[in-house]
Design a protein that fits this description.
about 25% helix
Amino acid sequence: MAEKQAIFTLMGGRIRMYRGSYNPTSDAVWLASYAPRNIKTVLDVGVGTGGVGLCIASNNPGIKLTGLDISPEMLAECARNAELNNITTELINADITTWRTARTFDAVITNPPYFRGTPAQHNAHHNADITTWVRKCIARVRPRGYFCIIVSADRISEVIAEMHNHCGAIQIMPLFGAKHTAERVLIRGRTGVRGGDILWSGLPMNYEPILRDGLTIDDVLARLNWI
């Protein structure tokens, strides 16, 4: 059996990643694609090895990227991946549920530990209280800033219920695989903003304009004449 290459890529080769203890999946690219372009600062909560944040930085040259994680091992790998892509990243070893700070960001993004089951070997959160996680993330969003999250479809009620306490103009984008039900759901809202919610008809999880070409979802919606 051939040995796996030490480096793999995301977004059609625009982002390079060292193969390590945790390797980002397409979820990372999808979440990054839901981040708006008109942002200058972004906090990636549960940054892991950096896949989401680095993809966002690729779409937003000059952005100030901050990554938060409880695992020193993950942060060390993230630092290597940021250096590999010549992207400057501030990394913080902290737990979002107990992090004491007054800092806020234009956007806070997160791919939370929404799966239930055996804790991960790399010491990341597992079986987390999603409601608390979402509340603490939103607390770090500046007024009229953005909160973006990706979760499995069976956790969306917890996320949306908490978001409605703090956000408006919530947009929900289901992602479909081989089944007739959504496998993942992207959700985005803005703090201090009023406005009706939007439930999009959804996109396939293997959608190449996102995964291969690195377009944002806003780009795709415009190309499809949905907006």
